[in-house]
Amino acid sequence: xxxxxxxxxxxxxxxxxxxxxxxxxxxxxxxxxxxxxxxxxxxxxxxxxxxxxxxxxxxxxxxxxxxxxxxxxxxxxxxxxxxxxxxxxxxxxxxxxxxxxxxxxxxxxxxxxxxxxxxxxxxxxxxxxxxxxxxxxxxxxxxxxxxxxxxxxxxxxxxxxxxxxxxxxxxxxxxxxxxxxxxxxxxxxxxxxxxxxxxxxxxxxxxxxxxxxxxxxxxxxxxxxxxxxxxxxxxxxxxxxxxxxxxxxxxxxxxxxxxxxxxxxxxxxxxxxxxxxxxxxxxxxxxxxxxxxxxxxxxxxxxxxxxxxxxxxxxxxxxxxxxxxxxxxxx
Length: 331
Hints:
This protein is of the alpha/beta class. It has helices at residues 58-76, 96-102, 149-153, 171-177, 184-190, 199-202, 229-233, 237-243, 253-268, 274-280, 286-299, 302-311, 318-326, and strands at 2-3, 23-30, 48-49, 84-88, 107-108, 114-115, 123-130, 159-161, 164-165, 193-195.
């Protein structure tokens, strides 16, 4: 068997889906939560973290299971001396969701994510590409019917129509993938979501059949269920890396994490968090400073904002200056 696993250099290369593919094995791993993840949204002094990021990074876990299965397939395919495989877990240009639907794992719901009749919306997907023939499973049909619960649940109205998502409006994209300041129209709607968003997934009625994840490594860390914004805002770079070691949250880095925190703190209405806003007006990365200005607008009195603007009159970053100017505090 020849392993042809993805690497950093190959992840964005379309040729990674090599021409000799004859079968694709799709797998799903349940990560269902034991409570509605939206409950934390009512606690404005806490941070809301997407269910999938409340435990160990799923990439390594799912990849390990895929390798175990691939090894078993290789052992069963002794008559295939030239057997080659590639293992993918959300890191290459592989359309996992339609492939999973074609393999019968579920169907793509109106929120564009896979829905399973057994596990609801809570599945990690992985794939094994092989150059051998395997019997095909029947695809799953769409069971969404007339339901639009997921579309109506989106805080930022990111769905342009059923089955169509404008990622530029999606809180998961904004808090994880987006670089730079977050547009003003989305900030209040983000609430206390500091990493990802589960609203459309959690709203799906099929979750009444969902099962709580049994895999121990997918059990939520207690300190990530509803962490204090105050405690999170105290993390410096070293503490951030240590606290989120083994978590996908570590991937976004301290700057984007603090940017998200500034929006959550601004939405908290908690004046006790004002010192964190003042501190982050001096943060090295301008995306953090820009969102700290917005947070100041939410938590400080007008006279205090003017005083802060005067203190930071030497600001040169265009985005940060624009935030001050939007308050009429820096002209």
